[in-house]
Amino acid sequence: MALLPALLLLLGCGALMAQQPDALAQYLQGRFLYQQHCQLCHGERGDGRGEMAAGLQPKPRSLRQGWFKYRSTPSGFLPSDDDLRHSIANGISNTAMGAFRQFSEEDLDALLVYLKSFSRRWRKPDQIGKVMSLPEPPSWLENKGHAATQAVAGARLFTQHCSACHGAKADGRGPAAAMLRDAWGEPSPPADLRQPFLRNGERAKDLYRTLATGLEGTAMISFESVLSPQQRWQIIAWILLQRLPAPPTLGGSKPRP
Ligand code: HEC
Ligand code: HEC
Predict the structure, then answer these.
(1) Residue 174: CB within 6 Å of ligand 2?
(2) Nearest ligand to the C-alpha of residue 95?
(3) pLDDT digit string (tens) for 68-79?
(4) Is the CB of residue 199 below 6 angstroms from any atom belonging to ligand 2?
(5) Is the pLDDT confidence value at 249 over 70?
(6) CB–CB of 119/107 below 8 Å?
(7) How far is the CA of 92 from the centre of ligand 1 (A)?
(8) Beta-carbon contacts of residue 23 (< 8 Å; ≥ 6 apart)
(9) Distance between CA 137 and CA 234 in Å, rounded?
């Protein structure tokens, strides 16, 4: 182990031991689980450069900056513990990040402690995000005729706000698509929104959450102050009409509560 991480580890442990003896055991359990199950992709130093990372697209998340895409917290804030637990336990559709359903609550808690030790951002109380309270989908979304009427307005809004990246057909091939890079310097293609399974969830309420939170570190900003709730549901109604059928053999990740 390089000197610097070893030193940081010692200092980190010292601080933890001073807080409470159990914290050290939890940290060590988290480190053990991380080394067994995560390091291969996310890297020994949490920089996303594990042995397997090179061939993967998208790349495993670097955990060192404290920037997370899949959150229920406002843009610019850290994710909630439940967001992290969800990503780990259910995996992320269409990526190499599989579901780790075998972990107990205790394992997950330990993993979070270790995962958070990679970035100083977790030690800043003003970076902790409050879960956004988001509305349930409107009842008209369930009514085919009504949803189709609303989708007409949705199509117009999509052209105005989304198609430059996601393409006129929502297939992810907008004119700006090829130029996009994420904050980690990797190519960042806009999602093909017609796919039956999406990384941040595919249900209407998941799409709404994505629009509310944005995906940190990518060109997918939060539309919280850009589009009204009504406009967002209209766009979602249109996206749902473009959806391709799911192949019968594939299951999506487990939906959030
Ligand atoms: C086979 C490679 C692989 C393994 C093993 C793996 N991950 Fe991942 N992980 C990824 C990829 C790829 C992503 C998706 C990044 C993206 O969508 O940009 C990801 C995403 C994540 C995210 C979500 C990041 C965000 O931006 O919201 C978390 C949290 C995470 N991984 C934690 C873990 C933990 C903890 C483990 C071990 C229990 C683990 N991963 C194991 C490849 C892996
Ligand atoms: C400036 C480019 C850009 C614009 C404009 C944009 N997006 Fe995105 N969007 C992206 C990128 C890039 C991603 C993929 C991020 C990733 O997964 O790394 C994305 C991802 C998404 C996702 C998540 C897909 C998933 O797999 O979970 C949804 C939903 C989405 N966009 C909807 C929209 C909607 C609706 C609009 C218009 C209101 C919009 N986007 C506008 C670039 C953009």
Answers:
(1) no
(2) 1
(3) 999 999 999 999
(4) yes
(5) no
(6) no
(7) 8
(8) 16, 17, 113
(9) 11
Candidate from 77, 92, 113 with most ligand 1 atoms within 8 A of CB, to mutate? 92
- Separation of CA 133 and ligand 1 centre (Å): 25
* Burial class of 188 by CB neighbour count within 10 A (0 to 12, 13 to 18, 19+): buried
**Closest residue by Cα to residue 13 from 5, 230, 190:** 5
Phi, psi at 228, each rounded to 5°: -70, 160
Nearest Cα neighbor of 85 from 69, 65, 96, 101 is 101
pLDDT digit string, tens, across residues 157-166? 999 999 999 9
Which residue's CA is the closest to the ligand 2 atom numbered 39? Answer: 162
Residue 80 contacts by C-beta under 8 Å, 6 or more apart in sequence?
Answer: 71, 72, 73, 129, 131
**Which ligand is nearest to the Cα of residue 181, counting in written order?**
2
How far is the first Cα of the chain from the last one, in angstroms, to the nearest whole number? 40
Residue whose Cα lies nearest atom 32 of ligand 2: it is 211
Longest dimension (CA), the chain: 65
10 or 67: which leads in pLDDT: 67
What is the average per-residue pLDDT within 151-156?
98
Name 199's Cβ contacts closer than 8 Å, sequence gap at least 6. 69, 70, 92, 93, 94, 95, 191
List the one residue out of 62, 6, 18 whose CA is nearest residue 38.
62
Q: Which atom of ligand 2 is nearest to the CA of 215?
A: 15
